[in-house]
Amino acid sequence: MRDTMTRTDDSGGEPHVVIVGAGFGGLEAARALKHAPVQVTVIDRTNHHVFQPLLYQVATAELSPADISAPIRAVLRHQPNAVVLMGEVTGVDIQNRFVTVAVGHERRTVPYDLLVLATGAGQSYLGHDDWACFAPGLKTTGDAMAIRRHLLLAFEQAEMEQNLRRRYALMTFVVVGGGPTGVELAGAIAELARTALRADFRHIDFAYAQVVLVEAQERILPTFSARLAQGAERMLRRLGVTVRTSTPVERVDADGVVLGGGERLATQTVIWAAGVRASPAALWLGPRIATDRAGRVQVGPRLTVPHHPEIFVIGDTASVRQDGRPLPGVAPVAKQEGHYVARVIEARASGTRLPAAFRYHDRGSLATIGRTYAVGTLGGLELSGKPAWLVWAGVHLGYLIGFRNRALVLFQWLWLYVTFQRGARLIPAEPSSPAAARCASGDDPLRDLEELPAAPRSA
User: Nearest 5°: phi and psi at 261?
Assistant: First the structure.
């Protein structure tokens, strides 16, 4: 079935702006258009905005998904010129100016005068998409819940496992990718294994617990200074993480990971944080649209598609170069791009002067390792240790949407700091991520491992 969704009756001829994606960039653009003489339609495949930088804490049972999420309709509740549609955009007709939206088994079209594509990014497996079933990424709340389920089940299975080699494989966790996401995940898993769960299991010798962070480059956190990266590595090792740099991954399968040189790590848990690729937005726009190697759309100085000034592309979907370097795919970039695009649209709609070309103002970057340690830059200053962690916590609380979420997250952090306990340790009955559901199998990847006669490693 196919029908057309037209503009609202009370639009009064105002331009119709369609925003695809309610992540940081899309939602910022929608909110910034609150007083603009336009009608706004926000389309997203889910009904909520999720604060992705804290997804690793959902995956490691520190927070619940609702703590870092906000319903899109609630966020835009007091914006009369905004409409929210839940559906998955599957195509764009740039000649007739409409997007195609899948709503259940139906296909509908939504016309636009101005289009903002803020569809984010997915996981890149560097040409090895078959690894996805064995090494899930962390991009959605479904991914986070599936990883949490896998982590907690590994401990539950290890509690009952008599075969020492199988138990060792169950208690080995490999994180691939030494960027901020990988570093934060590795530290959180190490704390989960060595502190939060230690008192809850009676038969596990936690000397078996091993977290391995694998990075192909010469050091972790390559976008940070060498001094900060070295401090982060020292803290990871203090938490019990084995850091393997200059170590590419050759293969990921049901039995574990094969590293460069043929070394195999037997594990049932591999988490991929080694790269991203853009959404299929560029494919929607047609073969003539220029993209970079990751599939991001190359945009002009006002974040529009060349020869299509009515189409804006922002966030992880866009390839934007500044001072000869591509801008990183982080939340501050997306938010600034969304706000800028709203200014351009409002200027066009009101007939006022257009703003100058977009320029990102870098206020710093931060990465946390464990409960009270972080590294980063702020206003040109390098920070590390507890001061950096306090700044990191303040920035992340400020970015969360709504007082309720800020209060809940702050309480959970305080509770974790005082008690070392994590309150979000429910194991979902089934995989929460569609990718996890497709990959689910009844086979035991450790079934052929033999008894390990050696004693467990010391903590």
Answer: 90, -5
- List the catalytic residues: 184
DSSP letter string, 274-316: S-EEE-THHHHH-TTS-B-TT-PEE--TTSEETTEEEEEE-GG
- Location of structure tokens 């991009």: 139
Distance CA 185, CA 192 (A): 10
The pLDDT profile of the chain, 459 residues, written as one tens digit per residue, is: 344 444 444 456 899 999 999 999 999 999 999 999 999 999 999 999 999 999 999 999 989 999 999 999 999 999 999 999 999 999 999 999 999 999 888 999 999 999 999 999 888 898 899 999 999 999 999 999 999 999 999 999 999 988 989 999 999 999 999 999 999 999 999 998 888 787 788 888 887 789 999 999 999 999 899 999 999 999 999 999 999 999 999 999 999 999 998 999 999 999 999 988 888 888 999 988 999 988 899 999 999 999 999 999 999 999 999 999 999 989 999 999 999 999 999 999 999 999 999 999 998 899 999 888 999 998 889 999 999 999 999 999 988 988 888 998 988 888 777 666 666 667 766 655 555 555 655 444 444 444 433 333 333
Distances (CA, A) of 276 to 32, 124, 328: 28, 4, 11
Q: Which amino acid is at 421?
A: Q
Kind of pairing between the strands at 210-214 and 172-176 = parallel
Contacts of 144 (CB under 8 A, 6+ apart): 55, 56, 58, 59, 65, 138
Nearest residue to 138 (alpha-carbon basis) of 20, 15, 270, 1? 270
Tokens 């870098």, located at residue: 362
Task: Say whether 57 sits in a helix, a strand or coil.
Answer: helix
Please give the angle made by the CA atoms of 88, 92 and 96, to the nearest 5 degrees: 135
What is the number of other CB atoms lying within 10 angstroms of the CB of residue 426? Answer: 12
Model pTM above 0.85? yes
Question: Rounded to whole angstroms, how far apart are CA atoms 151 and 193?
Answer: 9
